Amino acid sequence: MTDTKLRFPAEWEPQAAILIAWPHAATDWAERLGDVEETYIALVAAITRFQPVLICVADDDVETYAEIRLRSNRVDMTHVRFVTVAYDDTWLRDSGPITLRAGNHFRLLDFCFTAWGGKFEAGQDDRLVEALSTQGVFGNTPRQRIEFALEGGAIETDGDGTLLTTWQCLHERHPGLDRAELSAKLADWLQQDRVLWLDHGALEGDDTDAHIDTLARFAPGNTIVFQACDDAADSHYADLKAMADDIAALRSKDGQPYRLFPLPWAKPVWDAGRRLAASYANYLIINGAVLMPAYGDANDASAAAVLAQAYPGREVVPVPCRALIWQNGSLHCITMQLPQGLL
After folding, report:
1. d(CA 47, CA 290)
2. CB 216 within 8 A of CB 224
3. Is the pLDDT of residue 3 over 90?
4. Residue 263 lies in a domain
5. CATH classification at residue 286
6. Could you give the angle at the alpha carbon of 124 between the alpha carbons of 121 and 128, nearest 5°?
7. Which pTM was predicted?
8. What's the pLDDT tens digit per position in 197-244?
9. Backbone angles phi and psi of 56, in degrees to 5
10. Total domains present in the chain
């Protein structure tokens, strides 16, 4: 592939930074802000061991407070940069930019963000990419606005022209389009050669309508890491077994089965009678490491061992994410990687 052709890089390719947004009292985290701040501090501490982090803050007060909290936890502030911008909430996987690259040239894809089909207010989040771009955060990188609802958590690429997604999510967003039409649009905008679809797989407590990043992820070497369920008594068992069968039937570009790495199943996490989505598949890949959502479960260590096998040469760093799943997402959902050279 030449450097003149735009492509959608895999998450494990070199990164310039991770983009996040700091939670504050005007976001949905207000009720449990102290708990979620601890997760963000642990996340920033983990990222800055390996690379920079770009933190969106709502105003000067939020920036001052975030900096005090991070410094008091001995975070390496030389790898932290703040940018002031308005946002409704902190799910930057879905409201942040999707970046294509051609050599040292980039394009920011700014898809319409509807808060997962209009479930929440998202006016500021939908303007986030434009606001960051206008401030010059991405230099003179062109931004392409696409009036089509698509979240970053709904798509997964291997960096070599194959996209993985779920029918449930994309059909929910665009009920008037069939699979062939959706595949053609995604392949065109995201510079993909083919689109693979999963017909099964959904988690209770997930309000994204089955985002792929809670279910199955590409890894180097024609590999797929996926969330399995080995508890026949669990309500997820049949659907995740069917999803595992879907994944086993997929073939790489050269017609071979993928190498498969099933992740262990965490015990049910409940909050006020509501099941929360504790998926180990919602991990974040950064330079030299994989940051794994940890839930205080006996299977945290087993999940870390699986990820170490799937991503050899990378350190697996657990980040406590029990606080995040209260708002129906986890580690990957609150982050967006920015490819090396973009900043």
Report:
1. 10
2. yes
3. no
4. yes
5. 3.75.10.10
6. 135
7. 0.97
8. 999 999 999 999 999 999 999 999 999 999 999 999 999 999 999 999
9. -75, 135
10. 1
